[in-house]
Amino acid sequence: MLPFSLEPNAELVDPGLTAVLDWFRQADPDGSRMARVYRETFDQLYDGQRTGRYRWDQLYKTEKTHYGTLIEINLQREFKFDDGLVMDYQIAGHEIDCKYSASAQWMLPPESIDHLILGSVASDVKSTWSIGLVRATPENRNVGTNRDRKGSLSALGKSRIQWLFKDALMQPNILLQLPEDQVARIFAPKSGQARVNELFRVATNMRISRNIIATVAQQNDFMKRVRENGGARSTLRAEGYLILGGDYSSQTAVARALGCIVPEPGELVSVRVSPVDYLVDNSVELDGQLWRRIEHGHDSRAVAPKVVSQ
């Protein structure tokens, strides 16, 4: 007997699917854990610290096909799913086949019939990801004509996907958001320190992750390229730049006062400031002086103040 039923004039009743949905809603109610998995899997595949890559089209074809395998592995590491007996996982006592496709055209083998599919799609360009559940019943599935008899979801099957999260946001890849000429400007210098300096000059008021810094620096000690005493913080202070970290409440408070993007933990935001004589919008007092945020094209002739970590 199948673990679901279709009553006359009723919607599909699937207690197993409902149980797995409820499990995920308790384990990750806001999707933050999954968002981190998708972001880290893109970064893992790019391997930017060693390769300098940051775009999907820079990957080899074999690497692109490996993304789905990595998602399957990394989701299991994050959520500690039990191994399945016949499928990839067991979640809430139910067999789950994990599928990923950049186009949401999940290929379903014959052995997945009547099992639950945890299917996902993600776009680094859009900084979005989606994940949902559907049961691979014969009516939900197109029968493949190839030798392995793999098929995809039918139109009916697609309409029955229960989305846990649809077009949810993940940490952005700012190197995909900047114009190409600005990215070229960042990568032009030969030294890692000079490239990191240029990153913070160009990518102002944007969430800069540690992985982006590693990709630009391409050095083991990449965070050293940000710190005071020779790093970007001390070099760019002379040009009026503050580099604010999301790991410190005092620095996120400064970001809020300046009206700029507030960095999350593990992120940095670069903002250019200029002194003012009276309180205005997007201004903050630091070291006994009022400072305001200025945009590109405005000149700052003052050395920016130091911002304490706590």
TrEMBL record:
GO terms for biological process: DNA restriction-modification system. Gene3D superfamilies: DNA mismatch repair MutH/Restriction endonuclease, type II (3.40.600.10), Winged helix-like DNA-binding domain superfamily/Winged helix DNA-binding domain (1.10.10.10). The keyword Hydrolase applies. Residues 22-298 form the Type II restriction enzyme NaeI domain. Pfam families: NaeI. One of its GO terms (molecular function) is DNA binding. It comes from the Bacteria. Keywords: Endonuclease, Hydrolase, Nuclease. This is Restriction endonuclease. It comes from Arthrobacter psychrochitiniphilus.
